[in-house]
Amino acid sequence: MESMDARTALALLEWQIELGVDETIGETGIDRYALSATSTAQARPRAAAQDARAAAPPASAPADPFADPVAVAAATAMAAGSLADLRAAMAAYAHCDLKRGARNLVFADGVPGARVMVIGEAPGREEDQAGKPFVGAAGQLLDRMLAAIGLSRGENVYITNVLPWRPPQNRDPKPEETAMMRPFLERHVALADPDVLVLMGNFSCEAVLGTRGITRLRGNWAQAMSKPVLPMFHPAFLLRRPAEKRKAWEDLLTLKSWLRDD
Ligand code: URA
Predict the structure, then answer these.
(1) Cα(85) to centroid of ligand 1, in Å?
(2) Which terminal Cβ of the chain has fewer Cβ within 10 Å, N or C?
(3) What's the CA-to-centroid distance between 254 and ligand 1, angstroms?
(4) Residue 160 maps to which CATH number?
(5) Considering the entire predicted model, what is its pTM?
(6) Exposed / middle / buried, residue 256 (Cβ in 10 Å: 0-12, 13-18, 19+)
(7) Is residue 139 part of a domain?
(8) Count of structural domains within the chain
(9) 59: which strand partners?
């Protein structure tokens, strides 16, 4: 490839960013799970390769093409007796194609066993990189919302998502992806055993309540997965529509008084 001066390279980069490029990728997809198991190890010195293997997600057997992904998820999830088991079972689950393009399994953050469990949609770019839910701009707003009623992931909140792998280009989750990951979410709720579930946005409502329409659902208590459930606007929506923060504040106060009275 011809060499390029720094000014041209910078102009090209700025142009790509304006077009919406937010990551440097090749022309073909990369199976990062396969990479971490093989080529990374070949390319690095031995000590570094050992570190990489230690950090790599557990290898999983290829998916049986004749198996029902939802039934496999339900059986594996039910067999998990702890959150650590569940995380390992999800890492080994081979039926969800999102896993192939993801850098990390984003399992949860916060305090397992906390009274409040927040359920979001799916990791974005920052979460995929960090391996933790809600660490980007929406996550920072979520932290401020929780702090406004005395909650924090460091002390008294547990946070997860419907999907543990980032959908490419942050596209919406597909119904079949939500359906196959739902048994894991249900088991996650049972094992974390919070007093209340807070559902962030439509996809979380769809996965847990089987219905969407967040403008109608928000602020209204429901019951699902054997828990009281409070749907709220997703923080990413509030970043786009700051005028709706007033309603989110009402819902936070509803949660606060429920926690006080319960
Ligand atoms: N949005 C979500 O729903 N979850 C995350 O983890 C980040 C952004």
Answers:
(1) 23
(2) N
(3) 22
(4) 3.40.470.10
(5) 0.79
(6) middle
(7) yes
(8) 1
(9) none
Q: Is there a domain that residue 11 lies in?
A: no
Residue 238: name the closest of 145, 115, 104, 126 by CA. 145
Residue for token digits 């950090």?
A: 55
Which atom in ligand 1 lies closest to the alpha carbon of residue 161? 4
Q: Average pLDDT for consecutive 10-residue bins of the chain (262 residues)?
A: 67 62 56 51 39 43 85 97 98 96 97 98 98 98 98 98 96 96 98 98 98 97 98 98 97 97 86
Q: Domain range spanning residue 247?
A: 69-261
| Ligand 1, CB cutoff 6 Å, lining residues | 120-124, 127, 133-134, 136, 138-139, 161, 200, 236
Instruction: State the distance from the centre of ligand 1 to the C-alpha of 44, rounded, in angstroms.
Output: 33
How far is Cα 14 from Cα 231, in angstroms, rounded to an integer?
Answer: 39
**How many A from CA of 106 to the centre of ligand 1?**
10
**CB 117, CB 160: distance < 8 Å:** yes
Counting from 1 in the atom list of ligand 1, the atom nearest the Cα of 121 is 3
Nearest CA to ligand 1 atom 7: 134
